[in-house]
């Protein structure tokens, strides 16, 4: 009797419902994958169209970027250096401050402080970047001008600094997660050997959480590279090959904004530059993501 | 003349006088008075929740890491109360080492695990002296022969029993006087357990060992003295009986001790 109960077929309705749910889930998963694939494909095809008119050698060796001028030159480097420069300045701010904040929150702060400060940090991460951009342009740049009189109104220094501030909560929050995930038994072991709090934090817990910390830094770096509004507003629109942080520059993202907003005719060469630059940007973040994936796998310690 | 010289004749490594431990308002352990003899193995036994681990952790101020914990009474080490104002728990822990229930090597190489303590203690050692210290500590923990060819491998790559002996080697490297062991074999298989017990007998020549154990066979075969703890109706742990291991196991004075060691509860 019991056996026949177990073998009874489910009702048709239930089977249909199960099937429906399954299809729905696959559909939802497929959307995101197909969208990503679609973006990559359109990037690749339009980029190929661009390179059928501009040689890849010129793209990589020319030192000027003037696709919208009458004398057109297509050297990507001015945009790349500007992106790297603003991102590097941002990381110089975000990494030390974010890490210090994370170590403080995880290893030194009381539960009460942690419970208050962490949500505050995450609110900081929710400020729209356009606000940061105008903050850089209207507050930080005039302030810095007191110390650096030659500073241009648009410059990568204040854009980078403010971008760094924007990324602090990013680094702090993710690194704090990594530090807190280190098992308490390691803290006890270190204390048991006569470590001070500082030694426990710096010599045991931070190294043990290094994969998560590096991942947070790489993630922040790829956000800095892709960040658009702050640099478009505060760093300028002048593509030039320089590592001078006081002069206006143009990042890859700023260029994309400029072209997207302007009246660039569809199908023109200047239209295709958009994709070439976008594809370069994509390669940058893609390499960073692969790097962070590799780092996490290589250095992750498995605790049970 | 240092305190150490004054205490030269003191046969006890650690003495607890009327020690009580609180977690917040909860009194976890009440009025424990206990003298731990030097160069002996003292086992703390009792059912779960009887406060034996709490007592052990009070001996090197590990309870300080629990924000709500508070200790009353005295714990004397070389005649000095380790809970006196001005005593730095970091210094206490450098002389009273600890081995934990679950092996917890650092995610560093075997070599770095052992040399960690001397490094943070600021010992100025040449490369050769460090190598010797690592070898001596690993030999002391009966692990040297198994790992001498792979000192640069991660400590976590070892088996559970090896990891625990690595933790013992790590504790030995700072040359403590007392080693506290909190159920060091509970996560290990019987063969690894036996190795650790043999090791404890070796270590006894140079160190005082206090071990918390759930395992009464272990207490009876691997210790010189045994302290039996039990919690009262308020769930507060108390020391019921303390004596030589043979006396506790063969001729217990307290009825509750007899019931516990004969397996009637716990």
Provide a short characterization of the protein structure.
The complex is a heterodimer of chains A (about 300) and B (about 270). Chain A is mostly helical.
N/C terminus separation of chain A: 45 Å
- The residue-averaged pLDDT of chain B reads 90
In this structure, how is the largest beta sheet of chain B organized? 6 strands, mixed
Overall number of domains of chain A: 2
What is the CATH topology of the largest domain in chain A? MetI-like fold
The helix/strand class of chain B is: alpha/beta
Q: What is the fourth-level CATH superfamily of the largest domain in chain A?
A: MetI-like
Write the layout of secondary structure elements.
The complex is a heterodimer of chains A (304) and B (266).
Chain A: H1 2-7, H2 12-51, H3 56-61, H4 77-108, H5 111-124, H6 129-145, H7 156-180, H8 184-192, H9 197-208, H10 210-226, H11 229-234, H12 252-261, H13 269-299
Chain B: H1 3-6, E1 12-23, E2 26-37, E3 41-45, H2 52-58, E4 69-77, E5 80-81, H3 89-95, E6 96-99, H4 110-120, H5 127-140, H6 144-147, H7 160-173, E7 178-182, H8 190-203, E8 208-212, H9 216-222, E9 225-231, E10 237-244, H10 245-250, H11 255-261
Parallel strand pairs in B: 3-8, 3-9, 6-7, 7-8
Antiparallel strand pairs in B: 1-2, 1-4, 4-5, 9-10
Helix pairs in contact in B: 4-7, 5-7, 7-8
Can you put this structure into words, describing what you see?
The complex is a heterodimer of chains A (about 300) and B (about 270). Chain A is mainly alpha-helical and about 300 residues long. Chain A has two domains: about 10-50; about 75-300, MetI-like fold (Orthogonal Bundle). Helix content of chain A is about 75%, strand content about 0%. Chain A is built from 13 helices and no strands. Chain A has helices at about 1-5, 10-50, 55-60, 75-110, 110-125, 130-145, 155-180, 185-190, 195-210, 210-225, 230-235, 250-260, 270-300. In chain A, helix 10 packs antiparallel against helix 13 (about 270-300). Chain A is flat, with a radius of gyration of 25 Å. The two termini of chain A are about 45 Å apart. The mean pLDDT of chain A is about 90. Chain B has one domain (about 5-260): Rossmann fold. Helices cover about 35% and strands about 25% of the residues of chain B. Chain B contains eleven helices and ten strands. The model of chain B has no long low-confidence stretch (mean pLDDT about 90). Classes of the chains: A mainly alpha (about 300), B alpha/beta (about 270). The interface between A and B is medium-sized, with 23 and 29 residues.
């Amino acid at each position: 009797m019991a056996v026949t109960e177990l073998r009874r077929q489910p009702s048709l309705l239930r089977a249909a419902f199960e099937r429906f749910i399954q299809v729905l889930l696959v559909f939802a998963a497929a959307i995101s994958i197909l969208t990503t694939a679609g973006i990559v494909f359109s990037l690749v095809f339009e980029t190929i169209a661009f390179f059928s008119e501009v040689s890849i050698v010129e793209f990589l060796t020319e030192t000027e970027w003037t696709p919208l001028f009458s004398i057109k030159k297509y050297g990507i480097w001015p945009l790349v250096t500007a992106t790297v420069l603003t991102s590097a300045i941002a990381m110089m701010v975000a990494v030390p401050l974010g890490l210090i904040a994370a170590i403080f929150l995880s290893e030194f702060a009381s539960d009460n402080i942690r419970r208050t400060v962490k949500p505050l940090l995450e609110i900081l991460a929710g400020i729209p970047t356009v606000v940061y951009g105008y903050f850089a342009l209207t507050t930080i740049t005039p302030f810095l001008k007191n110390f650096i009189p030659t500073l241009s109104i648009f410059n990568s220094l204040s854009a980078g600094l403010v971008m760094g501030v924007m990324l602090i909560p990013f680094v702090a929050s993710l690194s704090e997660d990594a530090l807190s995930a280190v098992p308490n038994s390691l803290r006890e072991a270190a204390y048991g050997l006569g470590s001070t709090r500082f030694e426990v934090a710096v010599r045991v817990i931070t190294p043990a959480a290094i994969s998560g910390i590096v991942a947070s830094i790489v993630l922040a770096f790829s956000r800095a590279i892709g960040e658009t509004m702050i640099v478009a507003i505060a760093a300028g629109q002048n593509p030039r090959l320089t590592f001078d942080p006081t002069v206006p520059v143009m990042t890859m993202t700023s260029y994309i904004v400029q072209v997207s907003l302007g009246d660039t005719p569809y199908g023109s060469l200047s239209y295709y530059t958009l994709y070439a630059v976008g594809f370069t940007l994509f390669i940058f973040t893609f390499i960073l993501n692969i790097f962070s994936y590799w780092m996490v796998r290589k250095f992750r310690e498995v605790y049970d | 003349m240092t305190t150490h010289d004054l205490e030269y004749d003191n046969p006890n490594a650690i003495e607890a006088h009327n020690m009580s431990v609180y977690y917040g308002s909860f009194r976890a352990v009440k009025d424990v008075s206990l003298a731990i003899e030097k160069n002996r193995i003292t086992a703390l036994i009792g059912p779960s929740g009887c406060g034996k681990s709490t007592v052990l952790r009070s001996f090197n101020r590990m309870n300080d890491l629990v924000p709500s914990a508070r200790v009353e009474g005295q714990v004397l080490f070389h005649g000095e109360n380790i809970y006196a104002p001005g005593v730095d728990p970091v210094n206490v822990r450098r002389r009273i080492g600890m081995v934990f229930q679950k092996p917890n090597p650092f995610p560093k190489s075997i070599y770095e695990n052992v040399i960690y303590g001397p490094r943070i203690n600021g010992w100025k050692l040449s490369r050769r002296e460090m190598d010797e210290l690592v070898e001596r500590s690993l030999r002391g923990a009966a692990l040297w022969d198994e790992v001498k060819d792979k000192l640069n491998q991660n400590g976590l790559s070892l088996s559970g029993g090896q990891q625990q002996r690595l933790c013992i080697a790590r504790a030995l490297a700072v040359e403590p006087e007392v080693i506290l062991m909190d159920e060091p074999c509970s996560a290990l298989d019987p063969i690894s357990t036996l190795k650790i017990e043999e090791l404890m007998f070796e270590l006894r020549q140079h160190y005082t060992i206090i071990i918390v154990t759930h395992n009464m066979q272990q207490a009876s075969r691997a210790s010189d003295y045994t302290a039996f703890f039990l919690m009262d109706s308020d769930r507060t742990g108390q020391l019921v009986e303390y004596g030589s291991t043979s006396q506790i196991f063969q001729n217990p004075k307290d009825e509750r001790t007899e019931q516990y060691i004969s397996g009637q509860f716990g």
